[in-house]
Model the fold of this input.
Amino acid sequence: MKQLIKVMKALSDPSRVKILKILQVKGLCVCEIKALLDLAQPTISKHLKLLEDAGLVESHKDKLWVNYQLASGEDNVYAGTALHNLQGWLADDPEIKSLLVVVPIIDRANICN
Done:
């Protein structure tokens, strides 16, 4: 039951859902997510930690950056199901639509320096 509760708590925040939606497009670092959502870096980091603990997001270090991407969902059936379902959810939401237009063109070289 603990895994289910972690996933549900992670999905209960609009900013975390936005993070998951933008990570469906491509993997990003904290500074890119910060630029997209206009939130403070510590806030983004806390959201990502919670998403990672719930099995929804994975991270890997690449030189100076920590890159985040959606988890495979293989280790947690609840996270896997949520990620699968989230793909089709909110497709017509105006805020999500506007975010998803910008994600492919965001460039960390311009943002993170």
Summary: The mean pLDDT is 93. The two ends are 43 Å apart (CA to CA). The chain is about 55% helix and 10% strand.
